[in-house]
Specification:
The chain is α/β, with parallel strands linked by helices and about 290 residues long. The protein is built from nine helices and seven strands, in the order αβαβαβαβαβαβαααβ. It has two domains: about 230 residues, NAD(P)-binding Rossmann-like Domain (Rossmann fold, 3-Layer(aba) Sandwich); about 35 residues, no CATH class. It is about 40% helix and about 15% strand. It starts with 7 loop residues before the first helix and ends in a 9-residue tail after the last strand. Bound molecules: nicotinamide-adenine-dinucleotide.
């Protein structure tokens, strides 16, 4: 967000007194969201699995990464509850929410951001690859929102935001399980929007295109985009990523996604619920 805006002083602390929970907050988009809301005055609940998952072909975040997020949040003057929690564990998510309510007296905004990707054509997907993807990217969102929804509803104000993907808006070769999970997360969030309508709580989805994080900057992903090259580098795949969207952007910055999330979380978005906001560098324009 621009700091040269005339009302930046006001906007800079516009989430003061609020508590924002972010899953998958140890790095990437989740960290960007956590730090920006801290900058805007909110206390932060930052969770992450902090461990690798066997079917995922790149390393996930570490406890050190989560500790770094905490440092960055606290540097903004915010309080931070940073805890290891796997979104696949529904009871653990309820515990984290209970701890957050105990510490901060409630939660106002929840960003169900934790996610993973792997790839294979549908006929080659193993049961394990399929179930892991559905467990993290769909059931994980369910566990998170199910635990938080009663807390925000009780307060009469809240913002539930699911991070899905442009890969959940259309079929994509090699991403059948990812598309199914993200598509499901959209349906789940839209349903919650209807069930919570009139309570002061909104539920929306942000569908991102390619974002510059460890999820896309790893050898497995580079090889998917450049199967003809041996050990392709970031610079070698840049052009191939760029061809995926009309703007020719290889990857957006996590801050671009954070800006949209902040907007959906703001009081100004009180009539925005059940929406999917697509940040796909023009890909939406090609969709029916
Ligand atoms: N990067 C992209 O191009 C892209 C594109 C579309 C959608 N997305 C979505 O954006 C979200 C954020 O991803 P990112 O780009 O920041 O990637 P990332 O890999 O940097 O961050 C994802 C975070 O989620 C955590 N995580 C993974 N499994 C977890 C689990 N079971 N429980 C708790 N935490 C878990 C990881 O440790 C990591 O810190 C994901 O939902 C992803 O699917 C990303």
């Amino acid at each position: 967000m621009s700091t040269d805006h005339p009302d930046s002083q006001f906007r800079a602390r516009d989430f003061a007194g609020r508590t924002v929970m972010v899953t998958g907050a140890a790095r990437g988009q989740g960290r960007s969201h956590a730090v920006e809301f801290a900058r805007r005055g909110a206390d932060i609940v930052a969770t992450d699995v902090c461990a690798d998952i066997d079917t995922i072909p790149y390393p996930l975040a570490t406890a050190y990464d989560l500790a770094q997020t905490r440092v960055l949040v606290e540097r903004e003057g915010a309080r931070c509850l940073a805890v290891t929690a796997d979104v696949r564990d529904g009871e653990r998510m309820r515990e984290v929410v209970a701890d957050a309510v105990h510490l901060f007296s409630g939660i106002d905004v929840c960003i169900a951001n934790a996610g993973v990707v792997s790839f294979a054509p549908v006929v080659e997907l193993t049961d394990h690859q399929w179930s892991t993807m559905l467990d993290v990217d769909l059931t994980g969102v369910f566990h998170t929102l199910r635990a938080v929804a009663p807390v925000v509803t009780a307060r009469g104000w809240g913002r539930l935001i699911t991070i899905a993907s442009m890969g959940g808006r259309a079929g994509t070769p090699n991403l059948g399980h990812y598309a199914a999970a993200k598509w499901g997360a959209i349906g789940l969030t839209k349903t919650l929007a209807l069930e919570l309508a009139g309570t002061g709580v909104t539920a929306n989805v942000v569908c991102t295109g390619t974002v510059s994080t460890a999820m896309v900057h790893n050898p497995a992903m580079y090889s998917l985009f450049a199967p003809d090259m041996e050990a392709p580098t970031r610079e070698q795949v840049r052009g191939r990523y760029a061809r995926l969207n009309p703007l020719g952007t290889p990857w957006t910055d996590p801050a671009d996604i954070t800006a949209a999330v902040v907007n959906l979380a703001s009081p100004a978005a009180r009539h925005v619920t059940g929406e999917t906001l697509e940040i796909g560098a023009g890909v939406s324009a090609r969709m029916p």
